[in-house]
Amino acid sequence: MHERDSELFNDSYERCMRQSGFLERFYEIFVASSDEVAAKFVRTDFQKQVRMLKVSLYMLMNAAGTLPEGTVHLERIAELHSRRQLDIQPEFYDLWLVCLLEAVREFDASFCEDVEAAWRHVLAHGIRVMKSRY
Q1: 82: domain range?
Q2: The pLDDT of residue 69 is above 80
């Protein structure tokens, strides 16, 4: 991952997080995107889910830069989401990214092609790992 992608991602993430409701909006978009996705979240405590996603996005950035704590977190989350536990099918990760970028587009006033590309690059490694561990 290029340092510029990491900087663009981090700056965009911070802009989004400075506004109330960013991650909640992402979950609104994601849950509404598919009946199958909605079914996965029927019994979800969204306050807890938002806290976990906040940490996970930061750790995904660390994993993309091959920092050990990010990699350990990613492996733990990948196992949790595998067919052996939560059974999150690989195709859901592409939809997850589309919905996340839709929320970023709504909350980041500086959103542009470079920012979108940075989000995609930073999250690509984590998404590949999640899919491969299914």
Answers
A1: 3-132
A2: no
